[in-house]
Every structure is written in structure tokens, then in C-alpha cells.
Write a structure and sequence with these properties.
Elements lengths: L4 E6 L5 E4 L5 H22 L6 H8 L2 H32 L4 H16 L2 H9 L7 E5 L6 E5 H4 L2 H27 L2 H9 L4 H31 L11 H12 L2 H39 L3 H10 L12 H4 L2
Antiparallel strand pairs: 1-2, 3-4
Helix pairs in contact: 2-11, 3-4, 3-7, 3-9, 3-10, 4-7, 5-7, 7-9, 8-9, 9-11, 10-11
Length: 322
């Protein structure tokens, strides 16, 4: 608050009372101390004679580093897709009335959330010790295929399995929370209106749940970009792996770590921007839906035959935009 403000009532002599704003000295002191600490820390890095900045710029756009950046991006995207698809399946299983499916989903979530990602990565990379060969056969026949596990499970494949399967356990809880956030009365009304459980989930519940699921999905993807640095233990050719290979040869450890950090911060900034745009888009859709016809009106159209339920895999446009 700046300047002065006038009291709503006059003083004893009829003049307006001028009230000066309170000066928060402690806020300024704390702020100045914080700025001083940040500048001191930055100056240590920028003006440190032991850091050869010319080598940082030399490796920042080197082919090896750029190849690692591309691997980091595709592993992050692929692991997020695997985790999201499997997470939706696990969430539906956990909400199922079938106790066997529910126990399997709960066991999966408990196991993968209870063990560190690093342990899972190392396990998948060394799967050949447990299964030297992976065989797929048609039951009761000799027809099948066989692969050598060491050749099949490369560092990148182990990274995709470890990160994707681990992320699925967290996505399962996110999707479950999104599904349960949809009003139960809407599901009951849809079932009463003649929809099957599958149609209710596909046309009524999931479209609304996605608007709740999308924001944390963006957060998980941003976290995944940095979690891929753990791939270094399985030599997955990602950004951190390639940076470590370079500094093991020339001993420029700090310089290559700065290069990797700059790229991680850049990718995180881009992902954060895209996430904000996506959240804004879903926010606009939510406002549009509120202004549109209500759920009961759409359900009434279904009951009266004004809108036909989808058949043979064809979706009705109005129902899908719940």
C-alpha cells in the first residue's frame, strides 16, 4: 500500500484526517537479505575461476548432448503414455466390484509405490539373470517366438519399463480420485436412463474426470523429465548418461553438470508453459459446459429418443461433450 488515505470522517476542526501507511521495515530487511544471499550464490558460480565457461558453451549444443536431450524427451513422453494408459486400467480395476481385480490393482499400486524407482530400473536392466530368454508360444502348440533378454532389454527399454510401470501406480490414484470426484448422482441417473456401465463410464464419467486428471498429469510429466536422469545407472543414452560419458573422458565434471542442468531447466520451462496452456484450455471448456445444456437435459433427450445412444463403436458428439 502506498501514499496516504483519507478517513471517512473529519477531525475535530473539520479537516480530513490523513492516515500514513505503516512502514514494514522487517519485510524490507528480510527481502534485502534474501536478495543478497541469492546474488552471493550466483556470483560464486558465475565468477568462479575453476569453472571454464568456454567449455560449457562448447558442449551445450554438441551432438552427443543433443542426442541425449532427444532421448530424454521421448523416454519421458513414452513413459507418461504407458503410465497413463495403465493407470486408467488400474483405477477402473480398483473401483471394480470384483474383489479379485480390486486386490490385483491394490497390490500393484502398493508394490510399485513402495519400491524406489532406482531399484526398479536396475531390476529391469538385469532381467536376464532371472529370465535369460523371453518366449511367447501359442498354447498347446509349438508355434512361438523367442528372444534373448540381453538383446531385447536395452538401457532405453529398461528405462521405459521402469519409469512407465512406476508412474502407472501414481496415475492410478490420480485417475481414481478424478473418477470419484464426478457426482455419483450423474452415474446413477445415466444407468437409470438406460445406459450400460461401460457407456456411463465412457460418455459421462471419464470426460468430466479428465478435466481433474489433466493438471496433475502435467506435473507428473515435468517430474518425469528430471527423473530420467536416473537412467544413467543403466546407460540409457539420455542427457545425463551422455554428459557423464563426456566428463569421464575429459574430467570437466562441473562444466558438464552445468550443461545438463541448463537443458533440464529449459525442458522444464517449456513443459510448464504447455501445462499452463492446457489447464487454461480445460478451464475454458468447463465454463462453456456450465453455460451449455445441463446433464439432466441431455439425459432426458436420451430417454425420450431425441439422441440415440452410440452403437457399433460410433460416438454421439453431444453426449461426449458432457
Amino acid at each position: 500500500m502506498s501514499g496516504t488515505r483519507t478517513a471517512p470522517f473529519p477531525g475535530a476542526n473539520g479537516a480530513q484526517i490523513q492516515i500514513a501507511p505503516r512502514l514494514h521495515v522487517s519485510r524490507w530487511i528480510v527481502g534485502l537479505i534474501a536478495v543478497a544471499v541469492v546474488l552471493w550464490a550466483v556470483s560464486i558460480v558465475i565468477f568462479n575461476e575453476n569453472i571454464r565457461w568456454n567449455r560449457v558453451w562448447e558442449y551445450l549444443f554438441s551432438k552427443t548432448i543433443l542426442d541425449g536431450v532427444l532421448v530424454t524427451i521421448w523416454v519421458s513422453i513414452a513413459a507418461t503414455i504407458v503410465g497413463l494408459v495403465l493407470g486408467v486400467i488400474l483405477a477402473v480395476m480398483k473401483l471394480s466390484k470384483n474383489p479379485v481385480l480390486r486386490w490385483i490393482a491394490e497390490g500393484y499400486i502398493w508394490f510399485f509405490r513402495g519400491t524406489p524407482v532406482l531399484v526398479q530400473l536396475i531390476f529391469w536392466f538385469n532381467l536376464a539373470f532371472l529370465l535369460p530368454y523371453i518366449t511367447l508360444k501359442i498354447p498347446f502348440t509349438e508355434i512361438g517366438m523367442r528372444w534373448d533378454t540381453n538383446q531385447l532389454i536395452s538401457g532405453s527399454v529398461a528405462a521405459l519399463l521402469g519409469l512407465g510401470l512406476n508412474l502407472a501406480a501414481y496415475f492410478a490414484e490420480t485417475v481414481r480420485a478424478g473418477i470419484q470426484a464426478v457426482d455419483r448422482g450423474q452415474r446413477e441417473a445415466a444407468l437409470a436412463g438406460g445406459m450400460t456401465h461401460r457407456q456411463t463410464m465412457q460418455l459421462i464419467v471419464l470426460p468430466q474426470a479428465l478435466r481433474i486428471i489433466i493438471p496433475p498429469t502435467g506435473n507428473e510429466f515435468i517430474s518425469m523429465l528430471k527423473t530420467t536422469s536416473l537412467i544413467v545407472v543403466v546407460a540409457g543414452n539420455d542427457l545425463m548418461t551422455n554428459a557423464s560419458r563426456i566428463y569421464k573422458q575429459n574430467n570437466l565434471i562441473i562444466e558438464l553438470l552445468i550443461v545438463a542442468s541448463l537443458w533440464y531447466m529449459f525442458m522444464t520451462a517449456v513443459a510448464t508453459y504447455l501445462q499452463s496452456r492446457l489447464e487454461r484450455r480445460f478451464g475454458e471448456e468447463r465454463v462453456h459446459l456450465v453455460r451449455g445444456p445441463g446433464f439432466s437435459q441431455r439425459l432426458l433427450k436420451v430417454a425420450t429418443g431425441a439422441i440415440m445412444l452410440p452403437r457399433n463403436g460410433k460416438k454421439n458428439k453431444e453426449l461426449t461433450e458432457v
